[in-house]
Automatic annotation (TrEMBL):
UniProtKB keywords: Cell outer membrane, Membrane, Receptor, Signal, TonB box, Transmembrane, Transmembrane beta strand, Transport
Membership in a protein family: Belongs to the TonB-dependent receptor family.
An individual GO BP term: siderophore transmembrane transport
Protein name: TonB-dependent receptor
Signal peptide: 1-16
Membrane topology: Multi-pass membrane protein
Length: 693
């Protein structure tokens, strides 16, 4: 029922214009920027207002639409690989793990991801299912990435970073295009979208996208054969649209809607509740569908005063062996920006959020769980400028409140100083919280089964239990940054950080008398029951540095160097660092993200209509130990390369050839933290044709 309603709403906004299918023109406004203009690009995610990136008191980066186009990225995680300090690794052909400043995982929970300022994380795991949304790359204007806490403005879960995917407005003229991509791993991507102008005040755009991916090759693992063609191919379908209405010279309204349907084949190593009682390979299909609608009203209320009101509704339905979930979420948010004095700029606002989640029995979750969650928030931030000293100071705080009466306070203080027009020095002290997920407080799931061993007469099952007393995780972050435009064609951006973490999650066993072990019966089979419970017991710190250098060697050649380093040290405050009990989470949080990441990107205009992009990248080793079964996973450090060659055959047609992972036939990038089946990512190539008119 939900899906039909949202389908109707999307069709209204997407197809109100006759023949409104098409893709954007071949180049966006960002593509025409000079090197100096690129250094002065504005960012909105740092302080919820437009400001020059070069002056922002945060480790910020903007992935422009031109960078996305020239990288050949076909998904948002691929585009995020361009950002310093972001670790984007492919789990299998259809799943990704994306982290900022460590703690990477398929269900990363210390990262806030938004589309047009609206969160897309799932409250079930406090993470993002990247495979569940496959937005039209052609309609992304830019991706703003803030490394470090952003909770003062954006709220809980913006612990290590914020990713805001900003889609473009409709164009001021009728446009249309079709893009087709095909290769050995990408079976096809078809994207058709476009823009229609109803009047001087009303314009619209719409898109439809279809995507099919091939399956991967298995890597070696416990009881798993390497080199086997896997059951993890996928099909995606998505469509949506947007209407921009200039109500008057001082106010405008945007309404946008999207819906999608995914059929993703998967492999898991699920527990087996009959002999031989070992985790066994299971093939299934993730059937996911969802829809969202978002309306945003913006009004200029006076000189240096603006008001914004936003509403969104999101529906999501997922069925697979791991998780069967139905979720509805609604948000209402407002924001007011004004300048009480010439040297003060205040942003304040708040919002309410409602989410209803129902989890049904699956192969690892044996009981249904349902919950309604209501929350509210208020935030305020004041920026004071001292023009004569070329200094700005920012202080802010956000309060997140919950229906049980709990609240979380998240403050920050930032400063930015420009001793000259070419240099910016900045620093920040912030506190951010991650609120508990549904799984950590209420869900019970089976992790492992094992056969009878020694004197044990029964098989054993290991279960992870959420508990209602599990509280918020916390980080206190200290950051310093330096930006320097050394010459008109050479720029550097360096950021360093030190994060102190407390109350991080671990899963610890509920102790029992070994002489009288608890018994659990699943079906007709009794098991010795070992239960693990979520606890706020891990603490520690991380430290690191991120470097970006851009060099415009000539009008036709630009080079970009990125490097990041991180070191994370954690321990369980109840058990210490070396105890095998609870060691899995510490191992994962410390070592699943590489200490070193680096890349070099050369972008060359070989002729007026021929482009060559070459990207060489390095990723350090990853490893973690999965307890209590003591499975050890390790991925070696690796060097690989991507290449893109494009030819603009005419004013309307662009052809490009893209090669991925060219230095290896296949390689492993990441291993899922839950019921893993290791996958190797294969060398691939694809052709893309874009015809715009």
């Amino acid at each position: 029922m939900h899906f039909r309603i949202l389908l109707s709403l999307t069709c209204i906004s997407a197809f109100a214009a006759p023949l409104c299918f098409a893709e954007k023109a071949l180049q966006s406004d960002f593509s025409e920027m000079s090197f100096d203009e690129l250094m002065q690009v504005e960012v909105t995610s740092v302080s919820k207002k437009a400001e020059k990136l070069s002056k922002a008191a945060a480790a910020a980066y903007v992935v422009t639409s031109e960078e996305i186009r020239r990288s050949g990225a076909t998904s948002i995680p691929e585009a995020l690989r361009l950002v310093p300090g972001v670790d984007a690794a492919q789990v299998d052909p259809n799943k990704w793990a994306v982290g900022i400043r460590g703690f990477n995982g398929q269900f990363t929970n210390k990262l806030l991801v938004m589309i047009d300022g609206q969160s897309v994380y799932t409250p079930t795991f406090s993470g993002v299912f990247w495979e569940n949304f496959d937005y039209s790359i052609a309609d992304i204007e830019r991706i703003e990435v803030i490394r470090g806490p952003g909770a003062t403005l954006w709220g809980a879960n913006a612990v290590n970073g914020v990713i805001n995917i900003i889609t473009r407005e409709a164009y001021d003229e009728n446009r249309a295009a079709v893009a087709i991509t095909a290769g050995n791993e990408i079976k096809h991507i078809a994207n058709i979208s476009g823009d229609y102008v109803f009047s001087d005040a009303v314009k619209a755009r719409a898109y439809a996208k279809s995507k099919q991916l091939d399956g991967g090759i298995s890597a070696s693992g416990p009881m798993l054969e390497a080199g086997r063609k896997q059951h993890n191919d996928a099909e995606y379908k998505q469509l949506g649209g947007r209407i921009d209405w200039q109500i008057s010279s001082e106010q405008w309204l945007t309404v946008q809607a999207d819906l999608y349907r995914n059929d993703i084949n998967q492999e898991h190593t699920f527990p087996l509740f009959e002999s031989p009682f070992l985790n066994s390979l299971v093939e299934d299909t993730l059937e996911g569908e969802g829809a969202k609608i978002q309306a945003r009203w913006h009004k200029i209320t006076g000189l240096d005063s603006e008001l914004q009101l936003q509403f969104s509704y999101d529906y999501y339905d997922r069925v697979d062996g791991k998780l069967t979930e139905h979720r509805d979420t609604a948000n209402i948010e407002f924001q007011h920006q004004f300048a009480p004095r010439v040297d003060h700029e205040v942003v304040w606002g708040g919002g309410v959020r409602w989410s209803e989640t129902e989890i049904l029995p699956s192969m690892i979750i044996l009981q249904s769980v349902r919950d309604d969650v209501y929350s509210w928030n208020l935030f305020a931030q004041d920026t004071v400028t001292f023009p004569e000293q070329h200094l700005s100071l920012t202080a802010g705080v956000k309060i997140d409140g919950f229906e049980n009466g709990d609240s979380e306070v998240q403050p920050n203080v930032r400063a930015s100083w420009q001793p000259n027009t070419a240099t910016t020095l900045w620093g920040a002290i912030s506190r951010a919280k991650r609120t508990p997920s549904f799984a950590e407080t209420q869900v019970e799931l089976i992790l492992e089964t094992s056969p009878p061993v020694g004197l044990a007469p029964l098989p054993t099952r290991i279960q992870v239990n959420g508990q209602s007393e599990f509280g918020a995780e916390q980080v206190d972050a200290y950051e310093l940054g330096w930006r320097w435009q050394a010459a008109p064609n050479l720029a550097f951006d360096v950021a360093a950080f030190y994060n102190e973490y407390s109350d991080l999650r671990n899963y610890l066993p509920i102790y029992f008398d070994p002489s009288v072990p608890p018994i659990d019966v699943i079906g007709m089979q009794p098991f010795i029951a070992i239960d693990l419970e979520s606890e706020n017991s891990i603490e520690g710190h991380s430290q690191g540095v991120e470097v970006l250098a851009r060099w415009q060697a000539s009008e036709s050649a630009q080079y970009r160097f990125v490097y990041s380093y991180i070191d994370t040290q954690l321990e369980d405050k109840l058990l210490g660092r070396d105890s095998l009990v609870g060691a899995s989470q510490i191992s994962a949080d410390e070592d699943r993200s590489p200490n070193h990441l680096a890349s070099i990107w050369g972008a060359f205009d070989l002729a007026d209509n021929v482009e060559l992009d070459v990207r060489l990248f390095y990723s350090g080793e990853r490893s973690w130990v999965r307890t209590p079964v003591l499975q050890e996973f390790h991925i070696d450090s690796q060097v690989n390369a991507d290449l893109r060659l494009s030819w603009r055959a005419s004013e309307h047609l662009e052809l490009s050839l893209v090669g991925r992972n060219l230095l290896k036939d296949e390689h492993q990038e990441f291993i899922s933290e839950s019921w893993p089946v290791p996958t190797q990512i294969e060398r691939s190539a694809f052709l893309k044709a874009v015809y715009a008119w």
